[in-house]
Amino acid sequence: MRRNTIVKINTNELAGFKIICVGILFSVVLFCLWARACWIQIIKGSQLARLAQNQYWCQEKIQGRRGKIFDRNGLVLAQSVLCNSVYANPLEIDDYKQTARKLARILKISRAKLIRMLRQKKSFVWLARKISDRKASLINRINLKGIHLIKEYKRIYPQGHLLGQALGFVGIDGYGLEGLEKFFDDYLRGSEKKFMLLKDALGRKIAPDTAGDILELLSGDDLYLTIDARVQLTAEEALAAVVEKYSGRSGVCVVVHVPTGEILALANYPYFNPNDFRHSKPGIWRNRAVLDLFEPGSTVKPFLVAAALSRGVCNRDSIYFCENGCWQFGTSKINDTHKHGWLPVNKIIRYSSNIGAAKIGLDLGAEAYFEFLQNLGFTRAIMLPFPGRVKGLIRPYHRWNKGDLAAASFGQGFAITTMHLVQAYLCLAREGVLAPLKLISKLDQTRINKKFQMDEHERRIFSARVAQSVLSMLREVVEEDGTGKRARIPGVEVGGKTGTAQKAVKTGTYGDKYVASFVALLPALKPRYLVVVVVDEPHPHHGGGIVAAPAAKRVGMELLSLYCDYPGVQSVKYDEQSRQTISASKGKEGDVTFEHSFIKVEGFVPDFQGISLRKAAKLLLSMGIVPEVAGQGMVVRKQEPVPGTRWSEDRRIRLWIGF
Fold first, then answer.
1. Which class is domain 60-225?
2. How many CB atoms are located within 10 Å of the residue 498 CB?
3. 352 pLDDT more than 80
């Protein structure tokens, strides 16, 4: 019989064993947790922190808006707008061939080129900069992995080619590359700053409430010009017409308000549209008024006479024998376009006699003449805010012989820019006081002068008596039987001077190509406006009186009408009921702006330019006139007949409209 053995286990020992096992288990777990925490916080801490930061935060570079450029009346000539650019992160792309195929249709880039770009081992590759809103919308819609859009500023020029060469343009990265955009790049360009932005669960950036204020603080400063867009448009149209009519290479037209020295128009032709600078050649975007040197020809004869009068070498009635149109001077021959015998000084200017000018120059002497040209600024660069300003090209007087002095007396043998000529005539119009030309208004001029070493001092070059004597001679050029008869404006005495300069060729002689020029002073004896027209290589006609004078007349007529200085309107008395003000009353001399106002005077054509078509039509219909309208737009840009002229019997008027 088996005996049952009963094993008794001590419950206290079992409980102790369990406690030990649980303790070991918890110790292992705690050790693992500690080890994991150590691994996460110490060994991998910095890496994981960066990953977490990239997941919830991102670094954003914010570029402030580039400042706008305005004309004197507040019309925007250049501004920056937000647009989209597209870039890729190739490291995020799985199928670059499929991605390239879809993008090629939208971006109009070849698939092969996109594949090469997407294969790069980089985290950032530009695919297309500053694309249209339509393309950005299509890219958003297809939502390709690794393809992203970013906001950038794009520079646009709302007025197209208006003032194109002077404005210059901005490159793809927002830096000014030509013209005013380059000269004032530091002033216009916005600041750049980096910010940390929070991202939501979908990776979308959450901009802070103060982002708009920050962006505004980073924005560049605005630039206000003395240019009047209405005068600029007139100058460009007149210049284009004359250059095309005479098949010239190029042309320049500058308009200045004499009392203030402010440039109202600075036109170059052929046109340059800075919106499309990539498809233009440097020769097109070249600001010829500031950069191109040419021999001024007969346009310098008034300054020769001013120098001679100042030195007492001659007076208005001094007479010179003009050799009946041909003078053999040493080894050189000097010719006039017409045969003249004895001529007084005023008729030497009126008929533009080279022989008479040469004899005055020989009496004056090389040193005195050179010093006078130097005082007028011909040997220095004109202080205007443009890059690449050039000095006049004049040899020192001690290197001149008598032939050089004779040639220089009628504007050959040295070269200047159009702006040198403009500043010299501004000195004459201001009764002998040389004053700087102004292109910038509403700006801290002291700051600009200091930064760009621009001189704003005025100084007297010759007396007011001498200036008035020369101005009276220039009046005869237009109003008498002089070379500038084609610049006459009915009811206004115009002063002016023609220039027809032969162009030198590489052999050191003169060829059969010319530069035609004309300088107009309105009115002649107390000028308020200065108009300079220069046409390069016109043909078959090349005389300044034939080619350039009519263009200056056209600009002058529209200028006088625009500012209500046309005598047909100015001399008519009217009361307050006959004035319908469109903007503030006309500004005083020296104000930053000239305002435009509509004056309704019986018998004279009003000025409708610059007002809405609806307003112009309403005013005309109230006068019983139905206008003819041409073009597309909402604002009257041009009219015929010009303002200030008398109505014709049929009282017909044609309006050209635009935006």
1. alpha beta
2. 29
3. yes
Rounded to an integer, what distance in angstroms lies between the CA atom of residue 647 and that of residue 119? Answer: 72
Task: Using pLDDT thresholds of 50, 70 and 90, give the confidence band for residue 586.
Answer: very low
- One of 3.40.710.10, 3.40.50.360, 2.60.40.10, 3.40.50.300 is the CATH number of 229-562, namely 3.40.710.10
Distance CA 488, CA 316 (A): 24
CA distance 94 to 100: 11
Lowest mean pLDDT among 172-176, 346-350, 515-519: 172-176
Question: Residue 520 and residue 527: Cα distance in Å, rounded?
Answer: 9
**CATH, range 576-658:** 3.30.10.20
Paired sense of beta strands 76-88 and 69-70, if any: antiparallel
Cα separations (Å) of 123 from 95, 99, 142? Answer: 16, 16, 21
User: 366-375 vs 301-310: helix axis angle to the nearest 10?
Assistant: 110
- Ordered by start, the domain boundaries in the chain are 60-225, 229-562, 576-658
Q: What is the pLDDT of residue 8?
A: 54
Q: Is the pLDDT of residue 17 over 50?
A: yes
Distance, CA of 197 to CA of 173 (rounded, Å):
23
Which percentage of the chain shows pLDDT scores above 70?
A: 83
| Cα–Cα distance, 49 to 60 (Å, whole number) | 19
Instruction: Give the DSSP H or E segment for 87.
Output: strand 76-88
**pLDDT beyond 50 at 570:** no
Q: Which pLDDT does position 133 carry in this prediction? A: 80
Residue 201 backbone phi and psi in degrees, to 5: -65, -25
Q: How many CA atoms lie within 13 A of 25 on its CB side?
A: 6
Strand partners, 519: 497, 532
Distances (CA, A) of 393 to 253, 291, 292, 416, 511: 21, 12, 11, 6, 20
Cis status, amide bond into 606, omega within 30 of 0: no
Mean pLDDT of the 229-237 span: 92
Residues 369-396, buried b or exposed e (16+ Cβ, 10 A)? bbebbebbbbbebbbbbbbebbbbebee
For the chain, give the mean pLDDT: 82
